[in-house]
Amino acid sequence: MNTFNLAEWSLNHKQLIYYFITVIFLGGLFAYQNLGRMEDPDFTIRQMVVSVAWPGATARQVEEQVTDKIEKKLQDTPGLDYLKSYSLPGQSVIYVSLKEDTVTADKVQPTWLQVRNMVNDIKATLPQGVDGPYFNDQFDDVFGCIYALTGDGYSYEDLRERAETIRRTLLTVPSVKKVDLLGVQAEKIYIEIESAKLAQLGLAPSDITSAVQAQNAMTAAGMIETAADNVYLRVRHV
């Protein structure tokens, strides 16, 4: 009974074996040169979330007057795969998904721009009191590094200014796409009013509030009007 001897066959066909070894070696070298080595590889997510808030409305009202209107408009989205929505009391959430075989990676962002435009076109037809709509298509944002900035004796605003400078510097680094600041403390101004001074001037606390609000009110002639110019305030910056 004759059996196949692989070793003997290989010795008798050395040229063919050398050919296969060369092809496999070159194929492995080519694959290694094109092998993905990114820690956070790029990938395309073809889904957007459109959310709308309507405080005080029931789920049925949200569905009939908000969700249905937006869904009907979004049905004209190019390359649309499906729509999925949730209507909750005071809130509407709509998921827009695109077809992978139709919408390529370079067409995703232009499609999301069309979605924004279509929804904004019907924004005026939504009921009064509706907050939004808001769009979220940044699911692929992945932050590779997080740095903390501390400084004894520096105020929150000093740290924010320094962090903003660092952020602008990091954006100039090649391959850096986005830099966000976390934990930024908003500036606040506390107004402490002396009751005796108010009584002496014959003013009420509401007059102070009106005066502060009037600081940002521009008249038609471009002049700023204030309600009380002689009020003494102690302003404490934090």
From TrEMBL:
Transmembrane parts of this sequence: 16-35
Keyword Flavoprotein annotated: no
Keyword hit for Thylakoid: no
Record keywords: Membrane, Transmembrane, Transmembrane helix
Classification via InterPro entries: AcrB_DN_DC_subdom (IPR027463), Acrflvin-R (IPR001036)
Any single Pfam family the record assigns to this protein: ACR_tran
Superkingdom in the source lineage: Bacteria
Coiled-coil intervals, chain numbering: none
Name under which the protein is recorded: Efflux pump membrane transporter BepE
